[in-house]
Design a protein that fits this description.
With about 140 residues, the protein is α/β, with parallel strands linked by helices. It is built from 4 helices and 8 strands.
């Protein structure tokens, strides 16, 4: 069987691939979604953030924490005040765990807590907020 000029080669030339992929539904007005992240910066919607921040669906707060090793009980109070069901701790360029007392203070209130590098935390936050979960991301922004 001959396919002639309109064979597989012609069909394959019609295939087009997108150059980029949209990872989040940014059409939900008023919901904070993280549109990108990188060393020294995260973008929440159109806002460029160059400092550690606490991000919830309807809140965006500056966070004074510079390193996961310096986090104190007072530093987690603004996170807990948002009454999340889960906290995502973004620890900078590498995954590092906070002092066990910090984790205990979160977990003892019946709040889930996940610790990951800030890039993974941004992606996880977007998934959970997209599922209408009460999630708060506490993100440490570090230079590379």
């Amino acid at each position: 069987m001959s396919l002639g000029n309109r064979g597989i080669g012609a069909q394959m030339r019609k295939v087009r691939y997108r150059n980029g992929m949209k990872l989040t539904d940014d059409t939900r007005a008023g919901i904070n979604l993280i549109s990108s992240h990188g060393p020294g910066e995260i973008r929440v919607g159109e806002r460029s953030i160059r400092h550690s921040s606490i991000v919830a669906a309807d809140e965006l707060l500056e966070w004074s924490v510079q390193s996961i090793t310096s986090i104190s009980s007072a530093d987690i109070e603004p996170i807990l005040a948002l009454k999340p069901e889960i906290v995502i701790l973004g620890t900078g360029l590498e995954q590092r765990f906070p002092d066990p007392q910090i984790m205990g203070a979160i977990l003892s209130r019946g709040i889930g807590c996940e610790v990951m590098n800030t890039g993974a935390a941004c992606r996880t936050y977007n998934v959970l907020v997209g599922e209408d979960r009460r999630v708060v991301a506490a993100l440490i922004v570090e230079e590379s």
